């Protein structure tokens, strides 16, 4: 294993723009959900007439689709990701719109028959319902409760109240309150193996909400402890949670 300082430098220098995790592929692994979101998304895009992908990141998952409807739009709030998504998706006929994270969606009522998202930051259910046509669907894969919390709590300590956040029961209730009918909900708990501290630095720089005040300087001692733990055990084990949700606007 490389030395601590070398690994810290590698993780600190890695490019964290976009929404792929190729850089960390040899340093950490995450079990994938059993339903195959990208394949299911492509099927739905092929049957839609107007689609909207929310929080598209760098557009990597959306770009896996082989075909898009005549009207296809994606939104992203972080400018570096919006620029990356534009370069990737515009040649495919998908318009990328920069939006404010908590603002209204800049689209007309009933503009889309399909709204999608892979790992939205915070689903805006009333806005999703507003832009969907009657009979249209929201189809998404969400991050679930306590995802990655073994790593998060290694740095921040126990967070019992935060573990309830993103619970699928709460999201179903919010979707139904906005006027949507939830027609499918599937849940998965998935194993994460982290094999060096460079991956930890990369992940905490990219997933900034995990440890919001993270810097290498602030957490260097704790990173050193984690480096020793991985050296002893060969890996650090955490778990992610995901749920697939489909909701329709019936009226």
UniProtKB/TrEMBL annotation:
Which keywords fit this entry according to its UniProt record? Methyltransferase, Transferase
Source organism per entry reads Microbacterium murale
Tell whether Signal is among the UniProt keywords. no
Q: Which protein are we looking at?
A: Methyltransferase type 11
InterPro entries attached to this UniProt entry: 23S_rRNA_MeTrnsfrase_RlmA, Methyltransf_11, SAM-dependent_MTases_sf
Ranges where the Methyltransferase type domain occurs = 52-139
Matching entries from Pfam families are given as: Methyltransf_11
Signal peptide (residue range): none
Q: Which GO terms describe its biological process?
A: methylation
| Gene Ontology MF term list | methyltransferase activity
